[in-house]
Design a protein that fits this description.
The protein is 45% helix and 16% strand. The protein has a single domain, classed as 3-Layer(aba) Sandwich (Ribose 5-phosphate Isomerase B, Chain: A), CATH 3.40.1400.10. It is built from 6 helices and 5 strands, in the order βαβαβαβαβαα. Strands 2-1-3-5-4 form a 5-stranded parallel β-sheet, with helices on both faces. α2 crosses α3. β4, α4 and β5 form a beta-alpha-beta unit. By secondary structure, the protein is α/β, with parallel strands linked by helices. The chain is globular and about 45 Å long. The N and C termini lie far apart (32 Å).
């Protein structure tokens, strides 16, 4: 079974989404595209909500969300219990997001990184393991009071 990744963007992240989606598909991942499908202006929650819901339903294993700053997508995703979305704009942050936070959603700033950087960030985020240990205790505290 292929690793399934929900991918979504608003108009500001569309071009990077398309490049990352192609890269994922070429690398053997199943990328489920939740839009947008053009650079025409749209509201980022309209793409983020369906992508996140697909993760929570088990239809996708992780998610990648891209908007102008990455912040809007991160806010929408973290609205849901069970989602740990993190904004990354370099590979070091992507690695630590996985190792320390077990991030299951990656958000990226489409206006501040290029497609090659987004692909490198994505690759690091996908390959880095969760370290567990003291980090598992901390991640557990995120959900505890919900």
């Amino acid at each position: 079974m292929k690793f399934r990744i929900a991918i979504a963007a608003d108009h500001a992240g569309f071009r990077i989404k398309e490049a990352v989606k192609k890269h994922l598909t070429d690398a053997g991942y199943e990328a489920q595209d939740f839009g947008t499908h053009s650079v025409e202006m749209m509201d980022y929650p309209d793409a983020a909500h369906p992508a996140v819901r697909a993760i929570l339903k088990g239809e996708c294993d992780r998610g990648i969300l891209i908007c102008g700053t990455g912040l809007g997508m991160q806010l929408v995703a973290n609205h849901y219990a069970g989602i740990r979305a993190t904004l990354c704009w370099n590979t070091e942050m992507a690695e630590l997001a996985r190792r320390h936070n077990d991030a299951n959603v990656l958000t990226m700033p489409g206006r501040f990184i290029d497609a090659d950087s987004a692909i490198a960030i994505t690759d690091m985020w996908l390959k880095a393991p969760f370290d567990g240990g003291r980090h598992a205790r901390r991640v557990g505290k995120i959900e505890r009071d919900i």
